[in-house]
Amino acid sequence: MPQLRTDGQAHSGLRTHLTRALLGAALVVPLLAGGCGRSGTGGAPDGRPLVLTTFTILADMARQVAGERVRVESITKLGAEIHGYEPSPSDLKRASGAQMVLENGFGLERWAERFYASLRDVPHVTLTEGITPLPIASDAYRGQPNPHAWMSPRLAKVYVENIRRALTRLDPAGETTFRRNAERYNAQLDALHNELQLSLARIPPSQRVLATCEGAFSYLARDYGLTEAYLWPVNAEAQITPQRMARLIALVKERQVPAVFCESTVSAEPQKQVARQSGARFGGVFHVDSLSLPDGPAPNLLELQRHNVRTLQAGLAGS
Ligand SMILES: [Zn+2]
């Protein structure tokens, strides 16, 4: 399987560039194939409406609700760094065939402004509408909304409802289908919530520290009583400073955290350094901002959550 991580590169812009270059070399991604040749009213080549999402996790959620009625594609590819993404000319060209864009909001998609400026007639729908954000706790983005609300299964149901409403506006004849699909998916998210509660309750309370690269687990940590620790609050400002590293090393030592982790879309190298200097192990890679390849550990949001919790449990238990 192609490696989607870009170990050894710390700068976020460089990471983005390299991730995209790696993906371009490693994968034949069909995501960019459709919708380019159309002009005017747009739509997919098969006649179905084309809805774009800003990243792969939203595409998965939208497909769960859309079923076969709507074609859903992600603007950013699998493995891409989504905070500092730089849209390509082909992204913009493809977007001209779309009839709707679904975005996360909470400041995640500042890079998408170019899309919206060039797509004046294409509505974009914010899927965090109705969610009260948790603020980013520190540094340059302090006080701004933490964008990773999809990491809470409970809040993911708000996304589902916003997707259902948006698709119904786009394709009113699909109302019954979208409602049924949304109900089924919400039941799966409820089951996932119960599953995560049971799994995480098995970790001794003193060990419930999730130490990773990005502060992307704030919503999950709040929902399941975990302490979150990270190297940088949000990938958009992923600067490695000695202070941040020292702070995390001190916390890992103080709490005797047996394992630290990182995410699939950024370099794990700084966190491996934390592991070496704190005596913790490097416990593995979480998926947060992107799904994995279809045959990887996180092909959809439900499996992504299960993979992360398994990785956390195995890392913390392996001490
Ligand atoms: Zn992120």
From TrEMBL:
KW Signal (keyword) present: yes
Name of the molecule in the record: Metal ABC transporter substrate-binding protein
Origin species: Cyanobium gracile UHCC 0281
Subcellular location: Cell envelope
First-listed, main subcellular location of the protein, grouped into a coarse class: other
Gene3D superfamilies: Nitrogenase molybdenum iron protein domain (3.40.50.1980)
Pfam families: ZnuA
Family stated for the protein in its record: Belongs to the bacterial solute-binding protein 9 family.
Keyword annotations of the record: Metal-binding, Signal, Transport
Domain of life: Bacteria
